[in-house]
Amino acid sequence: xxxxxxxxxxxPGTACPDKSWSPNVWKVxxxxxxxxxxxxxxxxxxxxxxxxxxxxxxxxxxxxxxxxLHYTTPILYDPATQRYISGSMxxxxxxxxxxxxxxxxxxxxxxxxxxxxxxxxxxxxxxxQLPLMVARTYGQLNEQSKGYFRRTREKTFKxxxxxxxxxxxxxxxxxxxxxxxxxxxxxxxxxxESGVFFTGKQLTYADFIVAGWLVWxxxxxxxxxREWQDxxxxxxxxxxxxxxxxxxxxxxxxxxxxxxxxxxxxxxxCIALNEWRx
Length: 278
Fold this sequence. Notes:
Layout: E1 6-10, H1 23-35, E2 39-43, H2 49-56, E3 62-63, E4 69-70, E5 75-78, E6 83-86, H3 88-98, H4 111-139, H5 143-157, H6 170-190, H7 205-221, H8 226-246, E7 251-253, E8 259-261
Parallel strand pairs: 1-2
Antiparallel strand pairs: 1-5, 3-4, 5-6, 7-8
Helix pairs in contact: 1-3, 1-7, 4-6, 4-7, 6-8, 7-8
């Protein structure tokens, strides 16, 4: 199949030169790069996502407790089908169906397992990760997005952003995150398979879920930070080995379709899962 250029919509930040930081978008970008599907990135600020999605007919990705529809990135436009698709899992499923000649991320019979894995990862790994990330995410957003982000996340956490991960809280927060990742290390070991991937030697979308969320930490804490270096060594180096496999896929296609490799960067100074699930 001839791959026409698809458009991936992302939220810009200043933490890295290539502007990309969003874990949900990275799951899709890793998949596009792995599959070799020609694409480019278009940037959209937080307050503009809902209006854009409604205008182009992209579906909401969650329903809030008050019944309001919630719209998030990633959003992908595929000229092959002339459709806008929302949400990382839905997008990757679309790519699997629409581009069957590309490497598979859902081996036959594994799609239900990977969906369950995604839910478990959100609850056991992402929940303890969020407090470590929220203020750093805010600190590198453009001014157009900061007000929206502060208002929505402070409502979620019922706390000022600056009080979520104070220096005295950080040791316990990092321990909770490490313990959450440890649950998945135990799961991988119990499978009896050797190798860096969760099914052993076969790469699946489960690994893309993990890499998408971990690259968030890498980019916002800094690839050279002590925190990221420590994380890579947790659980006999499992996470560092996995992220080394994804390093060659860590590149952003800009609005001209040109790819820029990741350059280590430092952050500029700086609970409802529906706010984060996409």
